[in-house]
């Protein structure tokens, strides 16, 4: 189960494929781990800590953008950046995608986390979508 793949990355940031690298699968996998860890930390452990968290019960498509943005700002763009103050567009992009990541996180928590609690393979809007109100992203 992958939240995001190279095609998704191509949709949001095609410029990363113009830098001599044509596969960012490992970076997307690292980002997915970060995203699922954050979901467990900020949501599951807060409300359901007495039961086992199962990331496979999350709806993959809900976390595609979040995973792409995390991969971009935390893994991909730092590899492309020279980290020199003059003429490094990747440094600016890191900040841009970090903000998009935070915005997307807040949006997904606000609309409700889709989690297949009963494991039947379907998401019931009344029982499997849990909203989390938060005013800021904590790290």
Describe this structure in words.
The chain has one domain (6-13, 25-130). It is elongated and about 50 Å long. It has a two-stranded antiparallel sheet. The longest helix is centred in the N-terminal third of the chain and has 23 residues, at 25-47. The protein has four helices and two strands. The mean pLDDT is 91. The protein starts with 5 loop residues before the first helix and ends in a 9-residue tail after the last strand. The protein is an all-alpha fold and 139 residues long.
Name some characteristics of this structure:
139 residues; mainly alpha; two-stranded antiparallel ribbon; 4 helices; 3% strand
How are the SSEs placed, and which strands pair?
Elements: H1 6-12, H2 25-47, H3 64-80, H4 89-111, E1 113-114, E2 129-130
The biggest beta sheet is recorded as: 2 strands, antiparallel
- Helix count equals 4
What is the share of helical residues?
A: 40-55%
Spatial separation of the terminal alpha carbons: 25 Å
**Which residues sit in consecutive blocks of at least 5 with pLDDT less than 50?**
none
Oligomeric state of the chains present here: single chain
Give me the strand/helix succession. Answer: HHHHEE
Strand content: under 5%
Indicate the structural class: mainly alpha
Task: Work out the radius of gyration.
Answer: 16 Å
Overall geometry? elongated
Spatial order of the strands in the main sheet? 1-2
* Tally of separate domains: 1
> What's the overall average pLDDT, rounded?
91
Strand elements, count:
2
């Amino acid at each position: 189960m992958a939240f995001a793949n190279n095609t998704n990355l191509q949709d949001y940031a095609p410029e990363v494929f113009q830098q001599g690298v044509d596969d960012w699968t490992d970076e997307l996998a690292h980002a997915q781990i970060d995203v699922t860890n954050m979901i467990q930390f900020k949501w599951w452990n807060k409300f359901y800590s007495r039961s086992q968290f199962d990331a496979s019960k999350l709806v993959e498509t809900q976390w595609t953008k979040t995973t792409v943005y995390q991969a971009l700002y935390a893994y991909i763009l730092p590899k492309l950046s020279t980290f020199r103050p003059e003429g490094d567009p990747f440094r600016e992009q890191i900040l841009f995608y970090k903000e998009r990541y935070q915005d997307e996180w807040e949006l997904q928590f606000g609309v409700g986390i889709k989690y297949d609690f009963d494991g039947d393979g379907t998401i019931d809007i009344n029982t499997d979508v849990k909203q989390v109100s938060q005013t800021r992203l904590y790290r």
